[in-house]
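Case study.
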Amino acid sequence: VRQAVVVLAAVLIGAAPAPAQDGARLEVRVDSVTNAPAVQVHNLLDEPRWRDALADAFPVRLKWRIELWRDRTIIDQNVTHYEFDIVIRRDALLGYYFYTIIQPRRAPTDFAPYTDAASFAGKVAQPIILNGFQPRTPGTYYYAVTLRVSALDDDEFVEMRRFMGGGGGGSFLDAIRGSIMRLVGVPTQTLPQRSERFEVR
Amino acid sequence: MIEAWRRPASLLVLGLLGVVATPVPAIVAQDSTVTIDVGAEALPPPTLVAIPDSVLRRALDRFNDPTTSKVFGGSQFPADLDGTLGVYSAAVLVSGHIRGDVVVINGDLRLQSGGRIDGAVIVLGGRFSPDPGAVHPGSVTEYRASASVRLTADYLLVPTQSAPSLRTLAEQAALRFNNVVLTPHLGVGVYNRVEGLPIEVGPALTWTDGDRLSLRAAADLIIRTSRDPSGTRSRTGWHGRVALSRDGAEPLVVGLEGGNRIVPTADSILSPTESSLNTLLFRRDYRDWFGQTGASAFVSWRPAVPLTLTARAGWYRENSQAVSSPFSVLRESSPWRQNPLIDDGKFTVIALEARWSQWDAPGAPRDGWQAAVGVRRTGSNEITPVQLPSQVRDPLPTSGYAAFEASFDLRRIQRIDPRNALHVRFAGRGWIGGDPLTMQRRLALNGADPFAGYAFRSVTCDPRRRIDPSVPALCDRQMMVQAEFRRTVDLHLGTQLGPYGFGIERADLLLLADFGSAWIAGDGPGQVPAGSIQSLNEWRADIGAGIDAGWIGAYLARSLTEDGPVRLSFRLQRRF
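After joint prediction, the assembly is written out as follows.
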């Protein structure tokens, strides 16, 4: 047990962010004029798990959390944060890819469906600009972004479908699929990233 | 909000063709720049438009028409068709020429470029997506809400209700009288060694008057799965609650509550779920229990968003309860720990609490302060005290009893940067004046929760040489400081099997330290003067490390002040 303590402590003290996986990669840029953040996920659909999830008709949820931090000497200040979701899914028969943005207390935004996988991958990798999120008061700041990618579980799927207009209740197959996902688990992936520091004068 | 820079040509075409517009969410062009306006005014969430009965009837008539070509399951339709096409519970891709109507129920319809539908398009429970170049001169009826229909043995669709969820079943079982709704309620309490699993069943009533005022009432019969060996305790109890709520800027709740229940003593550790699992799996019930019959009135007011004030006045009869023999998965042959005797009697209780919280997510807050303070007066004119050593307390009066307690709990989560955070807690509670505390209000210093490096009830303030097998908590006061340094790491300890994943992607690694004690207040030997706290030299301390994945955490900790093993504990929630 003592060895376990030593190992755990060593891991804790020496723990560094895990190296980025070969596939998905997060990028955070700061607009040089407005200081608004632009977040972007590259190569997400190069990951077999997400490509397979879409191919198997699992909706995939991209949960974004963007935090604004003020750089200070010892303890940085978490100024504010913003969260939103993007749900992507594919209808195999129609050959359609769907892309929907869901923000808190807003109507969800459906984009016109894509028929081409490459175009859809480009859409998923498109930068998302958060206007109005930039700091106003002088100081040194940076953005910390976390993207959590997951296949929707049953409840979330029904809820998302409700928002997306699919109706409540769900089919029997939806229920079976949801039960399996609850029992076994669904793939998730978390991608953290920080922007460069920038000055507000 | 999302800015659309270019409207899709297809929408324009649809408009020119005089499409029957239905209230579905707007579609934004796929090549628009994605811009989120964080400061935009929030809009109310959309509500799905239900399918009108007349529309559903018309769609089913068309679908069930003997001349309609029916498709069950997803399909492509490249060929031409004379007549109506009906599709149920599937998506359909049309690239040919349909010389008639197309009815799709609970599915999507895509009309490819070059495809043509001469008649009406009806899509219920899905969406209609015509490609540029597709032709559909007829009307379009589209509803996203799914149609409640079922397929008969004759391959006909008839209206029905959706597959019921538990909530739906409860709603279906509800009785409605104007703005009063009566629904059944089924729940379970904490699994414990006195009554086993308390199963609560009964009706719940809700009355609403507009948007702000509501009345909720519930009356449950409590069925105890384990029998009292003496046979004196009833196999059932009850619990009732009625609360009048006023929502709005300053929510206010006023109510009455009463019951005949088995409730835990003040020295309760672990969450209800953790306590239940420990009892059920390992035959380790870390709480003590007593019977309580009575009623209370309460009021809760939130004058500002972070501040909640609550007050409760109660009248109770409390009595000791013996252990029964509930089932446990492991250690079935081991005896249960005895349940300590309490000071039986009739009590009046007045309790006030103020809670101020900046925390954003109750289960896993990220940042901010939380503070709570409370005071409590317990009085009695009819009390049958347990005999305790004089070092623990002076004899209790059998009438005119009054004891005062206070509590405080200050917590701070300070994020140092996006990955690192410091969690600190300073808390204390116990006797502050009046007569000594009753058995059911006494405290201890416990292992696992809050002290990860100590055993259960490691400090009980029991001076007796002969150990009481029930290990009662006998201290007057308890105070502690806890700290954790947390670092979020991406472990990527997951694996993939088909579309499913296992393991932990991300967790908090943490270093922890606890420092605190519990003691008896007084002027006697081994006691701490009422106006002081115990000398810090006598406080217990532990340090450790752990990993917290959110839904489960594992901790290794060791006492710094006593010899003892490194202890391993698991928690299903944050330690504090």
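Observations recorded in class. The radius of gyration of chain A is 19 Å. The CA atoms of residues 158 and 170 of chain A lie 7 Å apart. We will return to this complex in the next lecture.
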